[in-house]
Design brief:
mainly alpha, globular
Amino acid sequence: MKAFWLCFVPLFVAVDAFGILPLFMGLTEGSDARLRERIILQSVLTASLVTLAFVFAGSAFLRLLGITVADFMVAGGALLFALSLSELIAPHRSNPVQTDVLGAVPLGVPLLAGPAVLTTSMLLVEQYGRTVTIAAVLANMMLAGMVLWFAGAIYRVVGTTGARVLQRVTLLLLAAIAVMTVRKGLESFLR
């Protein structure tokens, strides 16, 4: 059970469902309830399938390229840090998107299953195994779906400012996880 939580927490931070809440609200503004439900389902399914593909084939792909886990940890940690820092300093702005693909792109990939989630999931497989990582991925995607499902109610409770504060705190945690990942990769090099 401890391994599950050790996988769940970094993935929860990487998925950042609360962080994409303002973007989701903006992209689906004016959509009826049925369309929002379809968009949420499409985004969660897309993000889950893409992440599970990385869980199953990520290590083999790295071996094919001759990349070690330590290499990936340093590169992935640096990328996570850069992403979190860039979002902290200059958050991305949404562009008009077609509603028929909105759930898959950009909500499913790259927002729910972006570089942070893909990198984190591959690293967790190496540390805790595939079964626990899959369970943590699926639990996080279901939780993200619930957050999006209740986006209107959550947004009314926390407001615009509260949603932005949640997003910033999550990005800070992601930056800290990125630094830890780089540190562990460097420790592997030095051994």
